Structure formats: structure tokens, C-alpha cells
Amino acid sequence: MVEAVWLTLKLATVTTVLLLLLATPLAWWLARGRSPLKPFVGALVALPIVLPPTVLGFYLLIALGPESPLMTAFKPFGIRTLAFTFEGLVIGSLVYSLPFAVQPLRNAFLAIGDEPLEVAATLGAGKADIFTRVALPLALPGYAVAALLAFAHTIGEFGVVMMLGGGIPGETQVLSIEIYRLVESLEWDKAHQLSALLLAFGFLAALTLLLLEKRRSAPA
Predict the structure, then answer these.
(1) Is 113 left (phi over 0), alpha (psi -120 to 50) or beta?
(2) CA–CA distance, 148 with 150 (Å, rounded to integer)
(3) What's the confidence (pLDDT) of residue 134?
(4) In whole angstroms, what is the distance from residue 16 CA to residue 6 CA?
(5) CA–CA separation, 169 vs 76, rounded Å?
(6) Domains, the chain, with CATH or none
(7) What average pLDDT is seen over the chain?
């Protein structure tokens, strides 16, 4: 049980850190870019929200399996598959939780407006300086929301990790899979303990999000 808790926290932490790094340029482009491809990319990013997790997990299982063309580049290193591995779970979690990181960051970048960026540009700031010294500080509340959502969403995922990880103890058996296993084996007391733990965490996450939103909307 402790092993499942540790593995879940490890997966959520790694996923959240990587998501914030990956989602930042994508959210900035979706917020400030002018490409006609934006609606299509935005829809692709949002797809995990509407797609059944088992469907997403099934296609990820194929993509990361030994027969996938994507795995060809890894074969010289002795890696035939990433399915049923922790690394595979990280990839699956990145895809599954991507919209929960991108959307808050996109909204934060949109909320900045054009004026602060234009003022910085007229003062001679380059694009990199405008982003790091103006946009990022103003978007910090969005980063807090994105990090919390990505972390909480990864903690609670089931369908994707079940399809892609299979519930290998110590490798891919996260909390949601452990609860499922305990219920199957009629270990109700232990299932209650873990379920209550996730229930408490979910409540605290939702409460924190509401408090963050209230603080952002409060008049200065």
C-alpha cells in the first residue's frame, strides 16, 4: 500500500514538472499566435478531456508497444517497448493531463492583454525578455492552477494507467489500480482507507482551486 502511494506521488510529481515545461510554449502560442492551425491544435490538446481514458490508453499501448514504428529509434539501446513501464506511465500521463496544464496557462497569458507586452516592446525589450520579465510574472497564478490541476488529475487517473501499465507492483501499480485490486480481492477495509485518502486529497485540491480563484478575482 505504501509502495503504491509513493509510486503515485512520484508519477504525479514527474508528470507535473514536465507538463509545465511542455505546456508553457504551447499555451503561449495558443494565446498569442496567429496561425490558422490554432483551432485544430487546440482541439487536439483538448481531446483527452472528451476521449474515454481506455481509448486513449489503448492507442498509447499500441504506440509504445514493441511493434510500433515509434519504438524503432529505441531498439539500438535495447528498449523494445515502453508499455508496462514507469516511463510509459509518464508518457501516458503527459498526454492525458496535457489540457489541464495548457488551458490554465493559455487563459493566464490571454488575461495579460496586449498593453504590458507592447509597453515592454516600446522600451526596447526583446521577445525573450518580454516573455521572461513581463509575461511569466503576470501569469504566475495560472501556473499555480495548472500545477495543481495536472498533479490532481494524474493522481486520480485510472483508465490510461490500467491499459498502459497493467498494475505491476512497484512499477506501474498506482493508487487507483491498487484500490481496484483490493476491491477485486474483497479487501474492503484497505480499499476504504485508500479511497478515503484520495477523497480527502480531492477535496483539498478543489478547495485550493476555489481559494486561488477567489484571490485572483478579488479587487486590488
Answers:
(1) left
(2) 6
(3) 84
(4) 15
(5) 28
(6) 1-31+38-214 (1.10.3720.10)
(7) 88
Tens digit of each residue's pLDDT (9 = 90 or more) over 27-49: 999 998 888 899 999 999 999 99
Q: ∠ CA(200), CA(46), CA(180), 5° rounding?
A: 40
Residue that has been written with the C-alpha cell 504506440 in this structure: 63
Please tell me the pTM assigned to this model.
0.89
- CB under 8 Å to 154, separation ≥6 — which residues? 11, 12, 15, 16, 93, 96, 97
**Which cell numbers hold the place of 162?**
490500467
Residues 150-156, mean pLDDT to the nearest whole number: 92
For residues 193 and 4, the answer to whether their CB atoms sit within 8 Å is no
Burial class (CB in 10 A: 0-12, 13-18, 19+), 118: exposed
The answer to whether 139 and 112 have CB atoms below 8 angstroms apart is: yes
Given a cut of 60, whether residue 218 has pLDDT beyond it is no
Dihedral, 89, 92, 96, 100 alpha carbons, nearest 10: 70
Q: Is the pLDDT of residue 219 over 70?
A: no
Those residues whose C-beta lies under 8 Å from the C-beta of residue 83, and which sit 6 or more positions away, are 61, 64, 65, 66, 164
Q: Per-residue DSSP letters for 56-87?
A: HHHHHHHHTSTT-GGGGGGGGGT----TTSHH
Say if residues 133 and 145 touch (Cβ distance below 8 Å). Answer: no
Question: With 0-12 CB in 10 A as exposed, 13-18 as middle and 19+ as buried, what is 126?
Answer: exposed
CA 42 to each of CA 60, 102, 191: distance values in angstroms, whole numbers, following the listed order: 20, 9, 38
